[in-house]
Amino acid sequence: MNDQPGRAQKQSGLISMSPVKVFGSAPFTNVARVLLCLEEVGAEYEIVDVDFHAREHKSPDHLARNPFGQVPAFQDGDLMLFESRAICRYILRKHRSTDGANLLREGNLAESAVVDAWLDVEALQYDPAMHAVFVQHRVVTALGGEPDERVIAESVARLRETLDVYEARLTTRGYLAGDEVSLADLSHVPYTRYLLEMPYGPPVFGEFPRVTAWWERLLARPAVRKVVSMMGGGSG
Amino acid sequence: MNDQPGRAQKQSGLISMSPVKVFGSAPFTNVARVLLCLEEVGAEYEIVDVDFHAREHKSPDHLARNPFGQVPAFQDGDLMLFESRAICRYILRKHRSTDGANLLREGNLAESAVVDAWLDVEALQYDPAMHAVFVQHRVVTALGGEPDERVIAESVARLRETLDVYEARLTTRGYLAGDEVSLADLSHVPYTRYLLEMPYGPPVFGEFPRVTAWWERLLARPAVRKVVSMMGGGSG
Question: The GST N-terminal domain covers which part of the protein (chains A, B) (predicted)?
Fold first, then answer.
């Protein structure tokens, strides 16, 4: 077993190889994104819950990890990181030898740029539209309020416009950045999982058969199935 | 002159070295971000205007470049890209040998991750707050409407919270990702330039002396001065 590439890298000594720590829990979409990457490369990790009810996210200890008082934060030895997509890039670069899917495509100038572009689409177009629907449908109602149906309708319309571009894109390739899965696809998993549990999700996805087939291909990945399960009943 | 590193790379033949094309004009902040990177590495480029009044951004030609019908789009030989930060990464990787500032820090696992994190802060926290202020103050009024002062106040409050984190961060280092400038800093230039022309900007910046000094260090860079000048009177 000790000549396995993954273990060889883990024993190189250049980088800390004790389990990394993820601060925050799996139901948070930005935490789930990080867990997905850790599962994809088979890294060891430890989840450290942050108690929001006790306002632990605004404690000096947590603010030293994430100055914005958000989750996730991430620790690898002396290195402390935040921002989920930056953490994902770090994990995939560190474990490049065990990243069978080559999820960043670094080393190929053009292919890595296409992954970057579609990862930015997820972060800047898909995520904000999804976040707005999620906040209205789940957070506002959990706090006893009435969801703002106008905000939901506008966000679902934005989402539909984005998925319309995805549908065209997926006509000639299996994944957003090409014929193979990349971080750009995986980054969509956490919010898509929640979307499909909300009444707005299945009708919108049903309009886009190639997007639906793409989602099913993602769900067939063991790492995706595991993290979707860790996200649980969607409490966060 | 022909043994200069930049030219040597340009003649390598592995990558197209005819001038790249940037579709969109400098007053657009997302276009200016790309121009900054091109200027920093001394790349040759051609700007191709997109006529929004003639709805050229929604033409089939432009949608083939950017499926969301936005600017910028970017062409390097057969490669077409969109999303400004992805284009910036591409430019900096391609011209790594002429990037004296090493603006992505790739090759150093920890340092590149810190650049990624603060670039995501710019994209996901700074830019949305600035964009909201800019739309109300400049776009709504240009269209003859009344700016929504509540939106402006909320966005300025968000901006102030973000700059408060920057001010603490800049206590022990000259730039957001460390002692040297990176793409994370430069990515703030286009909107900061507009902010400081609006009535909300100088009072907010005035509360943060280290942020103000950081901005002055950025403005001292020839590439920054050139692109700030290209952005002109702020028409877009």
Answer: 18-99
* Packing angle, helices A149-169 and A209-219, rounded to 10: 80
Q: Are residues B32 and B83 in the same domain?
A: yes
Q: What average pLDDT does this structure show over B83-112? A: 96
**Is residue B29 located within the same domain as residue B69?**
yes
Check residue B24 and report its DSSP letter.
S
Mean pLDDT of chain A: 91
Give pLDDT tens digits for A91-101.
999 999 999 99
How high is the pLDDT of residue A127?
Answer: 96
Same domain, residue pair B79 and B121: no
Measured between beta carbons, the chain A residues lying within 8 angstroms of B30 are none
Task: Decide if A67 touches B, using CB distance below 8 A.
Answer: yes
Residue A75, beta-bridge partner list = A21, A80
Amino acid letter for position B13:
G
Does any domain span residue B94?
A: yes
Domain identity same for A12 and A92? yes
> What would the mean pLDDT of A180-198 be, rounded to a whole number?
96
Residue B21, domain member (yes or no): yes
Tokens of A103: 């999820």
Please, which residues have CB within 8 angstroms of residue B141's CB and are 6 or more apart in sequence? B147
CATH number, residue A80:
3.40.30.10
Domain end, chosen from A69, A98, A127, is at A98
Residues 6 or more apart whose Cβ sits within 8 Å of residue B96: B102, B106
Percent of chain B with pLDDT over 90: 87
B chain contacts of residue A168, beta-carbon cutoff 8 Å: 67
Q: Does B99 touch chain A (CB under 8 A)?
A: no
The reply to whether A213 touches chain B by the CB within 8 Å rule is: no
Q: Report CB contact under 8 Å: A116, B68.
A: no
CB contact (8 A) between residue B123 and residue A125 = no
The answer to whether the beta carbons of residues A180 and A104 sit under 8 Å apart is no
In a domain, B234, yes or no: no
Q: Which of B57, B116, B52 is nearest to B82 (CA)?
A: B57
Query: Residue A78 belongs to what domain range?
Result: 5-98
- Does B126 share its domain with B193? yes
Residues A38 and A87 in one domain: yes
CA distance B126 to B192: 9
Handedness of CA B140, B143, B144, B145 (dihedral sign): negative
